[in-house]
Amino acid sequence: MWLRAWLACGLALPLPLAAVTSQSFQVSATITPGCLIVGGGSNYGALAYGSYSALATGTVTAAITGGVTLQCTPGVALSMSVNGGLHSSTGRNLQLNTGSARVAYQLFRDAAFSQSLGISQSVSVSYSDANTISLPIYGRVVLPGNQPGGTYSDTLQVQLSW
Fold it and tell me: What range does the record give for the signal peptide (predicted)?
């Protein structure tokens, strides 16, 4: 009887199973194409025409300097638009900081000043190096030679999209 009980108990014990020591699992990531604005904080740069006599006439040009650099996933279609500024009732204007005198100016998207950058016009930003993209903004002003002396300025808003 004792042997039967022992055999019955022995048969009830679980048998060792072969342990799985190797198995696979999936790893994945989704990379969303886009752009990153590097440096500059809230300042996208400056378009500085320089300092001239109040009697000076002629055309003066400048390119945007300083500010931000963009980095985009290669192949991302980047575009920008620039509003009319603070004094745009009749186009873009620099306004005397201590008065109401204004000097008109124009923006372009190429250094040859052949492609106008209209008010709030969305334009493509081309780039050859996706890690160092600069905003293609160039300005031209015709000095009238009859304005009061002082500092003339404007503030523009740039909208980027991708």
Answer: 1-19
